[in-house]
């Protein structure tokens, strides 16, 4: 199927070149790249660097959340540090209550068992929907011990 799509794109490109001239196609491709560039730059920065200097390197939505992250970042709790380092605050807010979209769950105050079960289910794929796609990628590299530490911190919020 991918080969077919590439073939169709190639045929369309060739037809476009024949019909409009190569300069027009190059300009059109540059326009597309310019329009999608901001989308491609969102959340691609190294998470460790973003956690170390969130205001300087984060996207606008994340930068706004990082301003509210100051109390969590100031905490000596290892769960708070992991929550910030793993990028949880980007969607769930610095406090786990102030999400960037109403459809994202407020995770603060949940029991340790519930929060941990949800994170593990997303990690294994047992829980899978449109909203878990991004989180699955984030929790894939997080140990079960670190997930528990985050869940414990969230339960106290």
Protein architecture, described:
The protein is mainly α and 157 residues long. The chain has two domains: 2-41; 47-155, Cytochrome c-like domain (Cytochrome Bc1 Complex, Chain D, domain 2, Orthogonal Bundle). Helix content is 69%, strand content 0%. It is built from eleven helices and no strands. The chain is globular, with a radius of gyration of 21 Å. The termini are far apart.
List keywords for this structure.
globular; Cytochrome Bc1 Complex, Chain D, domain 2; 157 residues; mainly alpha; 11 helices; disordered N terminus; 2 domains
The CATH homologous superfamily of the largest domain is termed Cytochrome c-like domain
- Beginning-to-end CA distance, first to last residue: 48 Å
Count of discrete structural domains: 2
- Could you spell the SSE succession in H and E letters? HHHHHHHHHHH
Brief summary:
By secondary structure, the chain is mostly helical. It folds into two domains: 2-41; 47-155, Cytochrome c-like domain (Cytochrome Bc1 Complex, Chain D, domain 2, Orthogonal Bundle), CATH 1.10.760. The chain contains eleven helices and no strands.
